[in-house]
Write a structure and sequence with these properties.
- The protein is an all-beta fold.
- It has strands at about 5-15, 25-30, 30-35, 40-45, 50, 60-65, 70-75, 80-85, 90-95, 100, 110, 115-120, 125-130, 145, 150-155, 160-165, 170-175, 190-195, 195-200, 205-210, 215-220, 230-235, 240-245, 250-255.
- The radius of gyration is 17 Å and the shape is globular.
C-alpha cells in the first residue's frame, strides 16, 4: 500500500509583482487567473509571464476552478459556471455570497453570511443549512473549504474552524488561541484544503499553517513576504499566495517526505 506523502515544510521561492491589486486567484489550464471586480490578469505558470486578460467573463470578486470547470461570482448575487473552453454551463443567483468552492463531485458550495448552500452543476439546490445554529454569531465574512467528506468553515473573528458533514451535521470545532513569540494573537483569514491537509493563512503574523482536518498542527511557515497573506492556490508542489492590498503574489514550495 502506498502511503500519502507527509508535508514536512514550506519554503519561499519568489515574489511576483505587478501593477494591479489582486483579488481571488484560480488555475485555468496553464495559467493562474488573478481577478477583482474591475479587471483581471493571467500568469503563465511555465514562464511567469503576466498579461492582461481580455475576456470579460473574468471579472468578479470570487473565482474557483478544478480540472473541468470554472465558477466566477460577484459579491452581490450571480455565480456563472463555465467549462474550460469558456462555454457557459449555468448561472446561479444567490444573494451576498462571500466565497465558493467546487468539490470533487462537481458540486458547487457557496457560503453566505449565515448559510452554506450546495448546488449541483445544473444549478439545482441540493442542500443548505443555517450556520448561526452552530456558530457564535452571525456576521458576513466566513471562509469555506472542503475535502471528500467534510466541509470546513473558518470564522475569522472568533478564530474557530467548524467541521461539517455534507448533510450539514456539525462534526467538531477547533481553535488556536495561542500568542506567538512576538506577542501576536492568531489571525486566521483564509482556509483551503490540499492533499487532505488543511491550510490557513495567518495574515497578521506572516504565516501559512498546515493542519490535519481535526486540529493537529503539522507545520507552519513564517516569512516577511507573507504579511497580509490571503488566498492560496496550489499547483503541483507549489502554493501561490496573494496579499491584502499589495500588488504581488508570493510563490512557495511544499516539501514532502
Amino acid at each position: 500500500k502506498i502511503l500519502p506523502p507527509i508535508l514536512k515544510s514550506i519554503s519561499y521561492c519568489e515574489l511576483i509583482k505587478f501593477n494591479f491589486t489582486p483579488g481571488a486567484i484560480a488555475r485555468v489550464k496553464n495559467h493562474i487567473y488573478i481577478i477583482n471586480n474591475f479587471s483581471s490578469y493571467k500568469l503563465n505558470i511555465k514562464n511567469v509571464k503576466l498579461e492582461k486578460e481580455r475576456n470579460k467573463i473574468f471579472i468578479g470578486g470570487l473565482i474557483f476552478s478544478n480540472d473541468n470547470y470554472i465558477c466566477i461570482g460577484d459579491l452581490y448575487s450571480v455565480h456563472v459556471v463555465y467549462s474550460l473552453k469558456m462555454e457557459m454551463i449555468k448561472t446561479i443567483y444567490i444573494r451576498f455570497p462571500s466565497n465558493l468552492v467546487i468539490d470533487n463531485n462537481i458540486n458547487i458550495l457557496i457560503g453566505t453570511g449565515d448559510k452554506i448552500h450546495i448546488y449541483n452543476l445544473e444549478g439545482k439546490l441540493i442542500r443548505s443549512w443555517n450556520l448561526s445554529n452552530h456558530l457564535y454569531k452571525n456576521h458576513q465574512y466566513r471562509d469555506i473549504a472542503c475535502n471528500e467528506s467534510e466541509i470546513f468553515v473558518l470564522e475569522n473573528d472568533m478564530k474557530y474552524v467548524y467541521v461539517f458533514s455534507y448533510k450539514g451535521e456539525l462534526i467538531t470545532s477547533w481553535s488556536r488561541f495561542w500568542i506567538d513569540k512576538s506577542g501576536n494573537y492568531w489571525s486566521p483569514l483564509k482556509i483551503t484544503t490540499f492533499r487532505n491537509f488543511v491550510f490557513i493563512t495567518d495574515f497578521k503574523n506572516n504565516k501559512i499553517q498546515t493542519f490535519t482536518p481535526y486540529d493537529k498542527l503539522i507545520c507552519e511557515y513564517e516569512h516577511d513576504e507573507l504579511r497580509g497573506a490571503k488566498h492560496m492556490l496550489f499547483v503541483g508542489d507549489y502554493v501561490y499566495v496573494n496579499k491584502l492590498s499589495e500588488e504581488e503574489i508570493v510563490k512557495c514550495r511544499l516539501i514532502f517526505d
